[in-house]
Amino acid sequence: MLSSAQVEEAREYAAQRFAEAGIVITEPERAAIEVSDFGLSDLDRTGLQLIVYVNTDRVCAKEIVLKPGQTCPEHRHVGTGGEPGKEETFRVRRGTVYVYTEGTPAATPLASPARREHYTAWHEIVLRAGEQHTVPPDTLHWFQAGPEGAIVSEFSTRSTDETDVFTDPDIARLTVVG
Fold first, then answer.
1. Looking at residue 177, what is its pLDDT?
2. Residue 21 forms part of a structural domain
3. What reaction does this enzyme carry out catalytically (predicted)?
4. pLDDT value at residue 178
5. pLDDT of res. 127
6. What is the mean pLDDT of residues 151-173?
7. What is the CA angle 19-24-30, rounded to 5?
8. What is the domain count for the chain?
9. Which of 2, 10, 69, 128 could form a disulfide with 35 if both were Cys (CB 3.0 to 4.6 A apart)?
10. Which of 106, 146, 115, 105 is nearest to 129 (CA)?
């Protein structure tokens, strides 16, 4: 559970990072910055801040801010209603992001997530500003910001985050504010 003050602090952090990167957001977008701790109450290590620009039946575009070392936990986008799961492309705008997917594990991974016992995908892709990677539907993946934090644009097919399947059984997709 996050306090209202923690949510506002995370929104302000994200808004400042957008401004520093020259990414203009409107006041309604700033007020709607989603802060997710994935139900673990450890936002600085496991979580993210994001804006959803558009999410229709066909496409989705988001802007994600990650604090230094902050991790989006391991998950997959499964299909629903006969549709394949979400295909998503991450493009790094600022900073470095370590993306992990299924495949040959890195010998010495650069990322170190909290609750490491719940991470099984260790094929490492290092993305720096201007680089991108596409994750196919129903592929186990997770990502972590480098030491300077990061801003990531996500372009995908329709987002149905509420159906994501997480490896960690304690994950809750919706943040509780108390």
1. 86
2. yes
3. D-lyxose = D-xylulose
4. 83
5. 98
6. 93
7. 80
8. 1
9. 10
10. 146
Contact criterion met (CB below 8 Å) for 46 and 40: yes
pTM of the model: 0.95
Domain hosting 39: range is 4-166
Question: For 90-105, how does the pLDDT look when each residue is reduced to its tens digit (9 = 90+)?
Answer: 999 999 999 999 999 9
Cβ(128)–Cβ(99) below 8 Å: no
Is 161's pLDDT higher than 90? Answer: no
pLDDT at 174 over 80: no
DSSP 81-150: TTBPPPPEEEEEEEEEEEEEESSSPPSS-S---TTGGG----EEEEEETT-EEEEPTT--EEEEEEEEEE
Positive/negative CA dihedral, 138, 93, 9, 115: positive
Element (H, E) at 27: helix 27-31
